[in-house]
Amino acid sequence: MTSLSYVLPIRTRPGDAPPGELTDYLRWLSERAEVIVVDGSDPEAFRSHHERWSAHATHVPPDEDIRCRNGKVVGVLTGLRVARRDLVVVADDDVRYDDEALARLEALLAGADLVRPQNHFDPLPWHARWDTARILLNRSVASDHPGTLGVRRSFLRSIGGYDGDVLFENLELVRTVAAAGGRVVEAPDLFVRRRPPTLARFLEQRPRQAYDDWAQPVRFAAFLATAPLAVAVARRRPALLAVGAASVVLAASVGRIRRGGRRVFDPVSPWLAPLWVVERAILSWLAFGRRVFGGGCPYAGTVIRRAATPPRELRRRFRTSVG
Asked: Is the pTM of this model over 0.90?
């Protein structure tokens, strides 16, 4: 048994697959950590989940007094209220830790306020390889954004939590802890398995992930420029497109070998990186249109305008609150 609490915010929808495999995981996990499932599903699904999970986890609905647009944040903040331990794992419902990853995360959290591990997909259908290309490109230049984080409960509660009216909630959490003076540890060699989404869910995620780039203006501008630039190059010097594609594959390959990535990342996914860049270049314009003409990105029955709060604004807020 570790000294960890494990917070799993979840909200299933009609037609989602029965949670049999997740039940097995929660049973395994309950022998190693305090498990808290914050379930925002409809009443019928909630009752079914309670029958399955209450023997292995504290299964509760989101607290009604926490009001924000992003339901996952409501689930996380509710779970932090319930957790009895200071070191907390926050994870999406497709994340699957093993003993080694839990022990490593616990050790890193002993000297940190937030730890960012590295997800990898297993198994690898074609659309998971496609999304792995994105992961590898992120790893080649900075850090990837996983579906799980380790946080110190006492620190997060001392700063009043984090903003739930944003789309890119994990980045918001990381930025908030850093802006408040917390110690953020990047762990790109702490590999945590993630089950791939269904193909339908993968396709649904494409526009939302593109909208997340509003939180990183330089990156977003680069992708907006990519499509018109590629069209101009194709007209004048089409051979340069092949050079550009090769450079993208090379960058993804660097991300694959960085910090022991060959242990979990396959050699095929880097070759899909140019296709992922084309996808993001096109969908960035959709994200632009949604912000300018639609007021934001549709999400779980609402519309969220902000992807995440700029770091400088968060730092200003904390300076003002201290002063």
From this structure: yes
